[in-house]
Amino acid sequence: MKQLTDLTFDNRFARLGDGFSTAVMPKPIAEPRLVIASPAAMALLDLDPAQAQSPVFAELFAGHKLWSTAQSRAMVYSGHQFGQYNPQLGDGRGLLLGEVVNDAGEYWDLHLKGAGQTPYSRSADGRAVLRSSIREFLASEYLHALGIPTSRALCVTASSTPVWREKQEKAAMLLRLAPSHVRFGHFEYFYYTRQHDQLKILLEHVLSCHFPETLQQPEPYAAFFRTVVERNAGMIARWQAYGFCHGVMNTDNMSILGITFDFGPYAFLDDFDEKHICNHSDDSGRYSFSNQVPIAHWNLAALAQALTPFVAAEQLRESLDLFLPLYQAHYLDLMRRRLGLDSAADNDQQLIERLLQLMQGSAVDYSLFFRRLGELPAEQAVARLRDEFIDLAGFDRWAHDYCSRSAMDKRSQAERQQHMHAVNPLYLLRNYLAQQAIEAAEAGDYTAVRKLHAVLSQPFVEQPGQQRYAERPPQWGKHLEISCSS
Ligand code: AMP
Ligand code: MG
């Protein structure tokens, strides 16, 4: 276990030079107070969890201090936002403090979000508010606990520094961890500014640091793109299987690593609704729940365009064509497991689609449905869940087919339950739970945030006395409008 002062830095991205990022020091926020730290994320840096209590922890992650071996940089990138190319993006409020190498030799970017203005801030203040910092913290650590690839969050620090959004709020900082902060938009930036030499340097950097296996391939750049497609197919399948709605799938928010990145007005589905739009400024529903699949494909095509100087169009096309079948195979596999089906049968896809159609418009709690389906033998479970559906005749037909299908897998109920509970969370990060914790935190009480994070860090394991976190949301809780400002 290490002390904070013992971290080892090796700043590979910073060494790419000023064409890729600009040196900027964090601008501290006043009277820093630690809101929450993630012991699991601290472990990634070999940090003793007790270090979070030291005053220097809050100071470091509120921009008051910096390791002498860190090199704080704002990265330049561009990207497609809601389908339109925006040539001027970049780290407007976050800084890459440096790359920490842990004892296992793994690299972790330390990225401080809300660290003040940079050359890429445009007219904005470079800050992040407490509510959005807490939301990103909770989501990153929860998605990880669910087994969904994601950036991580080390901690959130609150302050007395005022910031203006719809009203006056307080600035906070979030320390994000990821093996890389390179986005699709980084490649687009060099492509659209016709800096093909820099584009090649970026490619070489990303391949050697993050995709070393592709260097063994006859055509490493083509292999790299294929890997990005594969990883995205796996990530999106998990989002869809678990009802995660990202909300702002702009190409500047898409990680090159295929991890969930840049959390805004995200939401997990309460009632199943394939048309759900969690981003209230998304008028056309471009980033609605079911659109996440075609949009991921669209985003990959935008990345492919930026790689055309170095990879033949036919190869890019071939890899793009892999996305949908790969996505479908992952999704089918996950959903089978969520339904407790141990083997594969021909009509499984149909069985899943029929279930979702019945859920649509029936106000069935998407997450709890699967958990409850595993609690009892199939016949008893469907009988208990029947009342939740509006189309009872349709549900009875589905339940009949599901029970016969389920009986094909010869397993005891104990075994079936064990397998199902291992993939079906009892505790879901619901908007209203996050909102209650945020309101307490805004009033200076961090116990609710910490409690919520602790329960959600083991979402599959029933925790005595925590029933409140496993309940269906109240009506008001289902229709919260989460502010898109952050
Ligand atoms: P986002 O919507 O958070 O993904 O951000 C889109 C772009 O706006 C990125 O280039 C951000 O760095 C920038 N940005 C967002 N909020 C701020 C802010 N408060 N100050 C400066 N730049 C910001
Ligand atoms: Mg962003």
Order of helices and strands: EEEHHEEEEEEHEEHHHEEHHHHHHHHHH
- β-strand amount: 5-15%
Work out the helix count.
Answer: 16
Give the overall silhouette.
globular
- Helix-and-strand structural type: alpha+beta
Bound molecules: adenosine monophosphate, magnesium ion
The end-to-end span amounts to 34 Å
Radius of gyration over C-alpha positions, nearest whole angstrom: 23 Å
Number of strands: 13
**Biggest sheet layout:** 7 strands, antiparallel
Please bin the fraction of helical residues: 40-55%
Q: How much is the average pLDDT?
A: 97
> How many domains, as an integer?
3
Low-confidence blocks of residues:
none
Can you tell me about this structure?
The structure is a single chain. The model has no long low-confidence stretch (mean pLDDT 97). This protein is α+β, with helices and mostly antiparallel strands. The chain has three domains: 4-181, no CATH class; 193-332, no CATH class; 339-421, no CATH class. The longest helix is centred in the C-terminal third of the chain and has 26 residues, at 313-338. It has helices spanning 39-44, 55-60, 130-146, 184-192, 196-210, 220-242, 292-307, 313-338, 348-359, 366-375, 378-385, 392-407, 413-421, 431-442, 447-456, 475-478; strands at residues 8-9, 21-23, 33-37, 73-75, 79-81, 84-86, 94-101, 107-113, 128-129, 152-164, 168-178, 244-245, 267-268. Strands 1, 3, 7, 8, 9, 10 and 11 form a seven-stranded antiparallel β-sheet that branches. Strands 2-4 form a two-stranded antiparallel ribbon. Strands 5-6 form a two-stranded antiparallel sheet. Helix 10 (366-375) runs antiparallel to helix 11 and helix 11 packs antiparallel against helix 12 (392-407). 41% of the residues lie in helices and 13% in strands. It has 16 helices and 13 strands. Belongs to the SELO family.
